[in-house]
């Protein structure tokens, strides 16, 4: 199964990239929306909202495949939680190193 790498930057931006070097950059606001939705909603609600949260159909399709291939509800929950546990930055925060990667996770 392909992997999706998520890099969380000091600026609050996220970059999601797959093994084909296809990537999607999310602004601070878009990243917060994705993370907060993952925190506040069920797996099913999160998966259903992916097309609205992410503008890239390739990344959305790959993420849906991760959830579809998960064999248990616990595995599906763990995938969603990788997004829910990402660090968020408050609006207006001025990082000292905005280009520094503060987190990097691999999904699934």
Keywords:
alpha+beta; globular; four-stranded antiparallel β-sheet; 108 residues; 4 helices; 20% strand
Describe the structure.
The structure is a single chain. The protein has 108 residues and is an alpha+beta fold. 45% of the residues lie in helices and 20% in strands. The protein contains four helices and four strands. It has helices at residues 28-40, 43-53, 57-69, 73-84; strands at 4-9, 14-18, 23-26, 101-107. A four-stranded antiparallel sheet has the order 3-2-1-4. Helix 1 (28-40) packs antiparallel against helix 2 (43-53) and helix 1 runs antiparallel to helix 4. The termini are close together. 19% of the residues are buried.
Sum this structure up briefly.
By secondary structure, this protein is of the alpha+beta class. Helix content is 45%, strand content 20%.
Strand and helix map with partners:
Layout: E1 4-9, E2 14-18, E3 23-26, H1 28-40, H2 43-53, H3 57-69, H4 73-84, E4 101-107
State the major sheet: 4 strands, antiparallel
Question: Fraction of residues in helices?
Answer: 40-55%
Helices, by number, come to: 4
Give the CA-based shape. Answer: globular
Radius of gyration: 13 Å
Indicate the proportion of strand residues.
15-25%
Distance N terminus to C terminus?
Answer: 9 Å
Ranges where pLDDT stays below 50 over 5 or more residues in a row are none
Average pLDDT level:
89
How many individual β-strands? 4
């Amino acid at each position: 199964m392909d992997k999706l790498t998520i890099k969380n930057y000091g600026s609050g931006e996220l970059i999601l990239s797959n093994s084909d070097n296809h990537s999607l950059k999310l602004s601070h606001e878009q990243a917060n929306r994705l993370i907060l939705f993952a925190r506040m909603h069920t797996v099913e609600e999160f998966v259903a909202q992916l097309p609205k949260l992410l503008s890239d159909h390739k990344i959305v399709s790959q993420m849906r495949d991760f959830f579809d291939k998960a064999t248990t509800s616990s595995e599906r929950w763990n995938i969603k939680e990788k997004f829910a546990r990402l660090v968020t930055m408050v609006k207006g925060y001025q990082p000292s190193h905005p280009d520094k990667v503060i987190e990097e996770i691999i999904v699934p």
